[in-house]
Amino acid sequence: MIMRSGQQLLLPANPVFIWSSLIAALLLDMLPLGRVPWMPDFLALVLVFWNVHQPLRVGIGVAFMFGLGVDVHQSSLLGQHALSYTALSFFATMIHRRLLWFTVPSQALQVLPLFAVAHGVELVIRMIGGGIFPGWNMLLAPLIEAFLWPVVSVLLLVPQRRAPDRDENRPL
Amino acid sequence: MPLGTLDRSPPPFFKQGPSALSKLMFFSALSLFLMVADTRFRITQPVRAVLATALYPVQWVALQPVRAIRGSGEYFTTLSQAKLASEEASRKLAQQSLRAGQVEQLTQENNRLRKLLGLREQLGTTVMAAEVLYDAADPYTRKVIIDKGLAQGVDLGSPVLDESGVLGQVTRVHPLVSEVTLLVDRDLAIPVLNVRTGARSVAYGDPAASGSGLELRFMGSNSDVQQGDLLTTSGVDGVYPPGLPVARISRIERRAESAFAKIFCTPQALVTGARHVMVVKPGTGLIPPRPEATPEAVPKKKEKGAAK
Questions:
Q1: C-alpha span between B149 and B179 (Å, rounded)
Q2: Angle between the B45-75 and A15-30 helix axes, to the nearest 10 degrees?
Q3: What's the complex ipTM?
């Protein structure tokens, strides 16, 4: 595998950790905080992260299934989030070989259009379906998601960054 | 380095499954099909019911922190606030006791008069108490989720009330929860009666983004409406029981260029913060079916023409 110079060799990802992080993101999305248009979609963020880092484990089909779950929970149009997550996951798979060559802040800049496209897909579908326009502050949602990208890429890589041999003098 | 610290399985060069583009096409087509099936044909209810039941444990976990915060907030309500509330309640009770005494007598009198007239007696309604679990996070509609579903016998289309008026209508029933569309949703319409004048009309949800009101459409600009008029359910639809308060008229705009007045109303129920609600059985089974239109209207005309 060709890697960027200075990049740390990572441990293999634990499938249990991948799935539990996805479920935790779903839980965060399900917190009953009311109708907030600028609320970032944590599940979309974690899905893109695993699509980029583990494209063989978390693919478009997983994104579609989670989208259906969010649709039922929000009692929105069935298939609305499924379509937007499918598109999101497709674009993430398209850029996953290139993205990891960049530093984390510029990665955040590159995933911003992905989130914008996902929210745009939802908006267009609901406007065609005759929904209420939720207000301009929904434009903040993809921005917040892109700002959270560095946080997520630190948090979700922590288990893979542990030392292969435990050392008393070097805990991490 | 010990074994298992690096991913040693070789990447599959030839068995990669379908390409990302074909997956995208397949799942997009599937979700488009689901959307059309959901909006046009209304056949996705089983899918929704299965997914909703599967998601119920996760939803329950997500609700716990909010419930805990709510509970602790109520626990720390100070004594003075409780005292104030009790004083207010006893004052209200004194005001209402007079009316309550009259109501018994009026009901009796009304019953007798109805019997005299040979009218059907006022229909009794069966109600069920429910709790609002959460506001649906979908920003494109105005819906809430309540904790009673098919298992508790909630019917599709049941009116939902809170303590001060009509809140909305049950639009989807899942096995354990159901979904209530609020009055202020732009797709919900409710037949109302102006208590002061007795004029019937239909109130629609406000289509604006920050909409938390209702609108009376197609009322002529010379119609008799005043600010502060109370609108109640008229009962002509057979769904809502008659006489429940719905909204109060808050603003009337009469414009020279339009034949209709723009009438805005504020709902009486607490649409943004209701917690305990009542689900009423819809009265649709109690009204006689609509007489069928005679299908031979066209041939009859022809016969008439032939006879001439």
A1: 9
A2: 70
A3: 0.83
Nearest CB partner across the interface for B141, out of A27, A56, A132: A132
Whole-number Å distance between alpha carbons of B183 and B265: 11
Closest-CA residue of A relative to B10 is: A1
Average pLDDT, chain A: 86
Cα of B137 to nearest chain A Cα, Å: 5
Find the farthest-apart pair of alpha carbons in chain B and give their distance in angstroms, rounded.
105
The backbone torsions φ and ψ at residue B203, rounded to the nearest 5 degrees and listed phi first, read: -100, 135
Q: Inter-chain contact B179–A33, Cβ cutoff 8 Å?
A: no
Q: Is B26 a member of any domain?
A: no
Report if residue B44 sits inside a domain: no
Partners of B253 in the β-ladder: B262
Q: Indicate the pTM of the whole model.
A: 0.76
Structural domain boundaries enclosing B268: 123-284
Confirm if B302 and B185 have CB atoms less than 8 A apart.
Answer: no
Q: Span A129-139, mean pLDDT?
A: 80
d(CA B177, CA B145): 7
Task: Quick: pLDDT tens for A28-41.
Answer: 888 877 777 888 88
Query: Which letter, b or e, does each residue of A102-128 get, where b requires 16 or more Cβ atoms within 10 Å of its Cβ?
Result: eeeeebbeebbebbbebbebbbebbee
Which chain A positions have a beta carbon within 8 Å of B139's beta carbon? 35-37, 132, 134-135, 138
Interface with A, mutate which of B27, B147, B156 (most A CBs under 10 A) = B27
**10 Å Cβ neighbour count for B95?**
10
* All residues at 6 or more sequence positions from B227 whose CB lies less than 8 Å from its CB, including other chains: B249, B250, B251, B252
Of chain B, the percentage scoring pLDDT greater than 90 comes to: 5
Could you list the residue range(s) of the whole structural domain that residue A93 is in? 15-29+39-158
Asked if residue B99 is part of any domain, the answer here is no
